[in-house]
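Figure 6 in text form: structure in, sequence out.
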């Protein structure tokens, strides 16, 4: 019970996740030092991309949550950029800003995977909060059904993470394509943009892999108890 065979794989996935985190920071720092030829800031590029897509109503604001807190808020129709991204004119700043615009475009075009992600969110949120308690309670009280409910809820959380992957990959692809179309990056600079965005995508892949492996582990435990 202390060590489950699946823990070995989970440990490897955890290593991958930590490595991906370091890579995100490393790539961001590396490409933060490389200025884009146009000299435009992340906020300016985001504005140009949004306007060109007919999304003039989407606002761009400072994110107050510090570095790498950049996100698109679909409720407020606002792209929030951290200070280095908002003000910076490096390849890294432009890559992150354009990626968040990618999410705004997805929202506007009702991109299927994004719609599904929003629908899954409430259940996934409950799942990730409740599942650990249900598992622990189920084991302590020896209630197998409780573990079963925990697994069902945890599955929703895992599915949410799986659906997040195409959403993130698509936003990055849109970011690169739209920036090239607009001419705010050169073909050489696209490599740097790809570097920054691919590292970020890898962190999502690693954490999803970890969640899937954990789910498999819980299912195996559940089946062996029945
Ligand atoms: Zn994203």
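Output sequence:
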């Amino acid at each position: 019970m202390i060590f489950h065979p699946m823990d070995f794989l989970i440990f490897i996935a955890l290593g991958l996740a930590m490595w991906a985190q370091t890579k995100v920071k490393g790539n961001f720092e590396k490409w933060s030092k490389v200025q884009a030829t146009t000299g435009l800031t992340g906020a300016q590029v985001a504005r140009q991309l949004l306007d060109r897509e007919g999304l003039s109503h989407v606002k761009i604001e400072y994110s107050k949550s510090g570095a790498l807190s950049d996100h698109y808020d679909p409720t407020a129709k606002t792209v929030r950029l951290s200070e280095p991204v908002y003000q910076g004119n490096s390849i890294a700043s432009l890559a992150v800003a354009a990626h968040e615009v990618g999410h705004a475009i997805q929202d506007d075009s009702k991109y299927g995977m994004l719609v599904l992600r929003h629908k899954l969110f409430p259940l996934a949120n409950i799942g990730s909060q409740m599942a650990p308690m249900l598992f622990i309670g189920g084991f302590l009280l020896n209630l197998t059904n409780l573990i079963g409910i925990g697994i069902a809820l945890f599955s929703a959380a895992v599915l949410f993470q799986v659906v997040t992957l195409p959403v993130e990959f698509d936003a990055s692809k849109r970011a690169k394509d739209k920036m090239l179309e607009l001419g705010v990056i050169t073909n050489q600079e696209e490599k740097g943009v790809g570097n920054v965005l691919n590292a970020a995508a890898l962190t999502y892949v690693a954490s999803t892999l970890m969640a899937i492996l954990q789910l498999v582990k819980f299912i195996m435990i559940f089946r062996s108890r029945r």
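Caption detail: The two ends are 15 Å apart (CA to CA).
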